[in-house]
Model the fold of this input.
Amino acid sequence: MRDRVDLAIVGAGASGLSAAASAARRGASVAVLERLPRIGRKLLATGGGRCNLLNDGLAPSAFTSTAPNLVSSVLERFGGADIRSFFEGLGLRLQADDAGRVYPVTNQAGSVLKVLELEMSRRGVTILTGFDVERIDPAAGHFLIGAADRRKVEAAAVVLAGGGRSYPALGSDGSCHRLAAVFGHSIVKPVPSAVPLLVKTPICHFLQGQRMQVRIESRVGGRRLQEAEGEILFTQYGFSGPAALDVSERLSIALNRDGRKDASVAIDFLPFMTVEQVTEEFSRRTAAGWDSKNLSSGLLPEKFSLVMPHDLRDAGPAPGKSAASATARSLAASLKAWEFPVHGTRGWNEAEFTSGGVDAREVKPGTLESRLRRGLYLAGEVLDVQAGRGGFNLAWAWASGYVAGLAE
Done:
């Protein structure tokens, strides 16, 4: 005995549930196949449990992909205003912060999942949990989807919406990449994104647990890649915190996909001052007889003085001495652009996103149907489409899922 539906969706995350809603609204019979015991596990963890489901600055320019025009073709059909309208129509009230990040007014990801579950129920969508898709066999005019426990679903069309590889315990284990590859799709090697960085330095170990507001720049071969301003967290293995995660994507690609050995981050520990202002302040303090171990007091955390890159102890207190002035400037320059070699990233269990996936050039713009197999659609993190933190990736999941669910 097998279920027969118009559309089978592999994965009950954001893109999968969005696809189910759009398909059911056009009158299709839909089955959502989820390998975990319940749906939306990863969705509940997004935004620190608050679910940053959108960004008011949503635009194609926020994304990188092997097919840059693909994002614009999707957002033209289901963009930011449509996502807002979709959730408000489900009864979810939304609010945005100063950075444009959109959350439910309840500040609970559970509210987002609840309204989606109610929509699935209203529309008669079949949810099959514990359905670990093992294979998808194409047949004349339909697909036969088989689970590890031997259950089967027959469908006229299939949407692969099982996510990338981040947080595998929450459902995204990369299995949809394997399923897509069976149909001949190329896979851009997935690497962790929005992920903590590995830095071998006693400084991180000594300052572990310390948080600082900084400006951070990622580099490969001395070339600037990304820049962010915000909080970093010193850990025993390197750097974490929002700002470090924000510059991690292209570093991860360089390290984990391209095998580069010349990656680094440059950190401005005093982003609220110029080099000249820092130099002048250190020179003034030295001239006033400040001990070198207290030189950064009031500017940097107290423990930071123990790991300062230079020592003014031998420069002398006299304000006119060029040595003291030169040392002050050297110290200021170091604190404004202290470079740390990065030798790796943390793994999938600590990555917020996946960079890589099915080559986006292999799906059709505007529909997300596979160019290689009629009736097969791909959505969300399964595709090589990614953006920074702040609600952009989840917005892509809603938009691409909804468009894929319009499959004819």
